[in-house]
Design a protein that fits this description.
Elements (H helix, E strand, L loop, with lengths): L3 E4 L5 H10 L4 E4 L7 H4 L4 E2 L3 H6 L3 E4 L4 H9 L13 E4 L5 H12 L4 E4 L2 E2 L1 H7 L2 E6 L2 H14 E8 L3 H30 L3 H9 L6 H11 L9 H18 L4 H15 L28
Parallel strand pairs: 1-2, 1-4, 2-3, 4-5, 5-6, 8-9
Antiparallel strand pairs: 7-8
Helix pairs in contact: 1-6, 8-10, 8-11, 8-12, 11-12
């Protein structure tokens, strides 16, 4: 069985790593904040002192970190993965980062005979815990086939998207659709409030037809109860939309919806909402960022 190294045991990475353990994969983990490794280690994982050491003990290394610069540091800094890889290994980046940088990283790893897959995910913390993530994979088809059992241990819908960078490009399309959809949910709930409607029956009504969506089902109830705990934070959503802006500049064309949500999430970040869940976007329209009472009638 493949020996797996997992880097980044945060909100998403920790349950993903646990699911790999449950599937029977020998696992070694690394996180800059070592305490975040403890729940995984308690279930049987080993812990490494550096990404390099982790790579030396693994057949496949998976990274689940925040941004392009974090992946670059994990790979190529002193003590990074690149210094511990050997021919025949695979590096899987499950973060959401720049497609252009992904291709560059893949080429550099290949100099040492290490293949790379870009495999960003969708589904948030809930999907990570319940093993229902959507996983979009770019890289060589034969490498994807070799790693399929790993993806199946962490997700439900696993899609091979094409050559290196294609997984990241697909994820950015996902982020555009998701963010615009979230804005629609926020706008609808604000209209519910302005019209004096009872929120719960209104949501039941619109959830049964064409307006139904993952965002409406999963995040609207949280908004109604002023629950802004992060499954996926405004900070990370804004980061992803910055990547979308760069991606659009590369492909060309007009994408006004993407531009709008990117500016709104940037404003939410500027106003100090960055660590809230992305459903906290609604607080842009609450007076001075104040959370309004839940829209639920007793």
């Amino acid at each position: 069985m493949l020996r797996v190294g997992f880097i980044g045991t945060g909100i998403m990475g920790q349950p993903m790593a646990i699911n790999l353990l449950k599937a029977g994969f020998p696992l070694v983990v690394f996180n800059r904040t070592k305490s975040r490794c403890e729940p995984v280690v308690a279930l049987g994982a080993a812990v490494s002192r550096s990404p390099r050491e982790l790579a030396e003990q693994s057949d496949v290394v998976i990274a689940m970190v925040s941004d392009t610069s974090d992946v670059e540091q994990v790979l190529f800094s002193e003590g990074g993965v690149w210094h511990g890889v050997r021919p025949g290994m695979t590096f899987i980046d499950m973060s959401t980062i720049s497609p252009r940088a992904t291709v560059q990283f893949s080429k550099r790893l290949l100099e040492k005979g290490c293949e790379m897959l870009d495999a960003p995910v969708s589904g948030g913390e809930k999907g990570a815990r319940e093993k229902t993530l959507g996983i979009m994979v770019g890289g060589k088809g034969e490498v994807f086939d070799r790693c399929l059992t790993l993806f199946q241990a962490m997700g439900k819908t696993i899609t091979y998207a094409g050559p290196s960078g294609s997984g990241q490009k697909t994820k950015l399309v996902n982020q555009v659709v998701a963010a615009i959809n979230l804005l629609a949910v926020v706008e609808g709930l604000r209209l519910v409030r302005a019209a004096g409607l009872d929120a719960e029956p209104t949501l039941r009504a619109i959830s049964s037809g064409a307006a139904s969506s993952w965002m409406l089902t999963n995040l609207a109830p949280k908004i109604l109860n002023n629950d802004f705990a992060p499954g996926f934070s405004i900070r990370l959503q804004s980061k992803d939309l910055n990547l979308v802006t760069q991606f659009i500049a590369d492909v060309g064309g007009q994408f006004p919806g993407a531009q709008l949500v990117s500016s709104l999430f940037a404003e939410a970040l500027r106003r100090g909402f960055g660590e809230a869940g992305n459903q906290g976007l609604i607080n842009l329209w609450n007076e001075a960022g104040r959370q309004e009472p839940p829209m639920v009638r007793g």
